[in-house]
Write a structure and sequence with these properties.
The protein has helices spanning about 1-65, 65-90, 90-110, 120-135, 140-150, 160-200, 200-210. It is an all-alpha fold. It has one domain (about 1-210). Helix 1 (about 1-65) packs antiparallel against helix 2 (about 65-90), helix 1 runs parallel beside helix 4 (about 120-135) and helix 5 (about 140-150) crosses helix 6. The longest helix is centred in the N-terminal third of the chain and has 63 residues, at about 1-65.
Length: about 210
């Protein structure tokens, strides 16, 4: 009787561990899916911004007959094509959709664990859970840090480790914000530089340099 009770307790503990793992994976992958969709949206807006910038530069070069502006527009067009090709290959939206489908499967598995299971059934659920893990993306450092910082309670982590993760997360976040800021502001900075060059006559010297080369 004692052995049977011990076995039931162990099974219950194993089932609780699986439930916790499912909850963590669902929340973590939900966080990652949202980030991927935000990345996709940002990239689409940046593509529109730079496409408009290149179009304006091309029209400007035709109106003022400046070879240097046309040269800059050509360079940016090449960079834009390469960047779009690379970013499209990352499949942010498709990956987010795959994660959402994986989350739905995990939720269905979670619902099966609302009742106590036999050892055989529990082993089967662990196998299914591991197959779902293998079928989707592995952990990303940024998203794991995000989840650890905002979803874990201090009682689940040693305070020192948690503080280190908070610092790591905000350092990465600041770098990302700065990079996005530079990407957004770059066309406006370039436009200001070109206008300044026209007013000071520097752009004419550039045209002369291009004509001689």
């Amino acid at each position: 009787m004692k052995e049977k009770t011990t076995m039931m307790i162990n099974l219950k503990n194993e089932q609780d561990i699986l439930i916790d793992q499912l909850e963590y994976t669902i929340n973590y992958r939900g966080t990652k899916a949202k980030r991927l969709l935000r990345s996709e949206s940002f990239i689409q807006h940046v593509n529109i911004l730079y496409s408009c910038f290149v179009a304006c530069l091309s029209i400007w070069s035709l109106l003022v007959d400046q070879k240097f502006i046309s040269f800059i527009a050509t360079i940016i067009s090449i960079i834009l094509v390469v960047s779009i090709t690379y970013l499209n290959s990352q499949r942010y939206a498709a990956r987010a959709k795959d994660l959402e489908a994986n989350i739905l499967d995990l939720r269905n598995l979670q619902s099966d664990l609302l009742v106590n299971l036999s050892e055989e059934k529990l082993f089967e659920k662990w196998e299914i859970f591991n197959s779902y893990l293998a079928a989707s993306e592995t952990e990303d450092n940024y998203d794991k840090l995000y989840y650890d910082v905002f979803e874990y309670s201090p009682s689940k982590n040693k305070e020192k480790v948690r503080n280190l993760r908070v610092i790591q997360f905000y350092a990465q976040m600041i770098v990302c914000i700065l990079l996005k800021g530079v990407i957004i502001l770059l066309p406006f900075i370039a436009t200001g530089f070109l206008i300044y060059s026209m007013l000071t006559g520097t752009i004419s010297n550039m045209d002369l340099l291009l004509s001689n080369s």
